[in-house]
Amino acid sequence: MPVLERTVNTIIRGLVRVLCRVEDNELSKIPPQGPAILVSNHTTNLEGPIYYVLLDPRRKTALGKQELWDNLFTRFLMQVWGVIPLNRRGADRRAMARARRALERGEFLGIAPEGTRSMSGALQRGRPGAAMIATAARVPIIPMVQWGVQDLVSNLRRLRRTPLHFRVGTPFFLRVPDNRLPERSELRRMADEIMYQLAVLMPPHLRGYYRDLSAMTTEFIEPVYTRKTAF
């Protein structure tokens, strides 16, 4: 890891430990090396950096909205961490290609399948981007969630430490019928199945669009442990 990146990560990690009560034992369930896609819920612009420093020393990158490069400070962080800029206005083939190359190098790729922040903290309906990349790269998906980050700023104003909770689910592959590229309708169903894997890890009041677990399907979900080759 370059000296600048190590220094930035150490500073941010120290701040997180001072400002928060971090319940991060579950992050140890994530293997020490990839390739894999890490999917997570998205409530603020803060959980990405927190994940990034707490997952050290794993090799990792993430897809980040292109607007983060408009601000001097966030652009600095994105460049230090090698985050992949994503144009959310349409299909960004350049970003998808860079994501594929990161996975081919054995890195973890962080994706927020909701595509935008949830202002309430509850899950929104997922988008098919993570499913597209996972089925093309044939890599596992690891579901992980957090809650508490959304309260960090308000607690800081009241001089309170923020409890941060993290949960990690069972890694899985997306099963594609007949070993082919999935159709649009299948990608839509895959996206919902990915989000349900996040929902089961969340407290009931934060499951949002996926609150009804009785509607959950696993048509395309294949747990990693059922395959002879995994990571």
Would you mind describing this structure in some detail?
The protein is of the alpha/beta class. It has one domain (3-226): Glycerol-3-phosphate (1)-acyltransferase. Helix content is 34%, strand content 18%. It has seven helices and nine strands, in the order αββαβαβαβαβαββαβ. The strands form two sheets. It has a seven-stranded mixed β-sheet with strand order 1-7-6-2-5-3-4, sandwiched between helices. Strand 3 (60-65), helix 3 and strand 4 (84-86) form a beta-alpha-beta unit. Helix 1 (3-19) packs across helix 2 (47-54) and helix 5 crosses helix 7 (184-199). The protein is globular and about 55 Å long. The mean pLDDT is 93.
Shape: globular
* Number of helical segments with 4 or more residues: 7
Number of domain modules: 1
By secondary-structure content and strand pairing, the structural class works out as: alpha/beta
Average the pLDDT over all residues and give the rounded result.
Answer: 93
Q: What Rg do the Cα atoms give?
A: 17 Å
Helix content: 25-40%
Query: Which stretches of 5+ consecutive residues score pLDDT under 50?
Result: none
What's the N-to-C terminus distance? 22 Å
Q: What CATH architecture label applies?
A: 3-Layer(aba) Sandwich
Instruction: Please report the total strand number as a whole number.
Output: 9
Give the key terms.
alpha/beta, Glycerol-3-phosphate (1)-acyltransferase, globular, seven-stranded mixed β-sheet
Write the layout of secondary structure elements.
Blueprint: H1 3-19, E1 20-23, E2 36-40, H2 47-54, E3 60-65, H3 72-81, E4 84-86, H4 93-104, E5 108-111, H5 129-137, E6 141-147, H6 152-157, E7 162-168, E8 172-174, H7 184-199, E9 221-223
Parallel strand pairs: 1-7, 2-5, 2-6, 3-4, 3-5
Antiparallel strand pairs: 6-7, 8-9
